[in-house]
Design brief:
2 domains, 17-stranded mixed beta sheet, Diaminopimelate Epimerase, Chain A, domain 1, alpha+beta
């Protein structure tokens, strides 16, 4: 990282239902973060720690451009909870009730849903095998994997298992095996979900490049879409995660996700820390 003329680098810590993020607002500076920086900042003992890191940059015709990384340094095209957190920050900063954001997933629209909740349209799900993507042509509704999971793309790949009891799955061992399944050439996020009531799911998440997380917005969207396609729920679904509840609504214009956000604190990376990153 080139720190000449800055010596420190400010950041924000945010989370959506415990799915936590380090966010850099780079709209007034040049983004000089390297992959080594991203990995070092993600270290929960020697850095700050996060599930995803996000960078906010200026872009024409939208309120901001967002880029996301996982804690292993890999890039992610979509991060629903981080998008909601940043949308809330930008709306408060701009004293407005809606924003338009550019991401690798596409242009996303977010608005204040009232009662402290924020909604974001995560776009239409990708249901064809080559869009997820999968390694070969398959019916994405039920993959030829033990448990017959459903594949869904939300700008990033997902593999959703519907089980009798999501709590009973050993996600620590189940997650990485399926993250690296050969049917997913770009690896995949893994969800285990069980139906606990009408249009009501309990879900747990293994995130690609991260591990077990308390919540995942794109995973919640993918799981709701998969449940709808399989006839388990309608298009409006409540999803209870380890960190709390999200509400998903698969509409004609895309998959809307609604939930709470938290801007925990602002901080500064010191020159000493920045100079240790090689």
């Amino acid at each position: 990282m080139n720190t000449t003329g800055t010596h420190t680098l400010s950041f924000m810590k945010m989370h959506g239902l415990g799915n936590d993020f380090v966010v850099f607002d780079m709209r007034d500076r040049v983004n000089s973060l390297t992959q080594n920086d991203i990995i070092a900042i993600g270290d929960r003992r020697n850095g700050i720690g996060y599930d995803q890191l996000a960078v906010i940059e200026s872009a024409p015709k939208v309120d901001a451009r967002l880029t996301f990384w996982n804690s292993d340094g890999s890039i992610s095209a979509a991060c629903g909870n981080a998008t909601r957190c940043i949308a809330r920050y930008l709306m408060q900063q701009g004293q407005c009730d809606s924003v338009v954001l550019e991401t690798l997933r596409g242009t996303l629209y977010a608005h204040d849903a009232g009662k402290g909740l924020t909604s974001v349209n995560m776009g239409q799900p990708q249901l064809e095998w080559h869009d997820v993507p999968l390694a070969r042509e398959l019916d994405t509704l039920e993959l030829p994997i033990d448990g017959a999971p459903t594949a869904t793309g939300m700008g990033n790949p997902h593999c959703t298992f519907f089980v009798e009891n999501a709590e009973a799955v050993d996600l620590e061992s189940f997650g990485p095996v399926h993250e690296h399944h050969p049917l997913y050439p770009e690896r995949t996020n893994v969800q285990v979900a069980s139906l606990i009531g009408p249009d009501h799911l309990r879900m747990r998440v293994w995130e690609r490049g991260v591990g077990i997380t308390l919540a995942s917005g794109s995973s919640s969207c993918a799981t709701a879409v998969a449940a709808t396609r399989r006839g388990l729920t309608g298009r409006k679904v409540r999803i209870d995660l380890d960190g709390g509840t999200l509400w998903i609504d698969w509409r004609e214009d895309g998959v809307w996700m609604t939930g709470p956000t938290m801007h925990v604190c602002d901080g500064v990376l010191t020159q000493d820390f920045l100079e240790t990153v090689q």
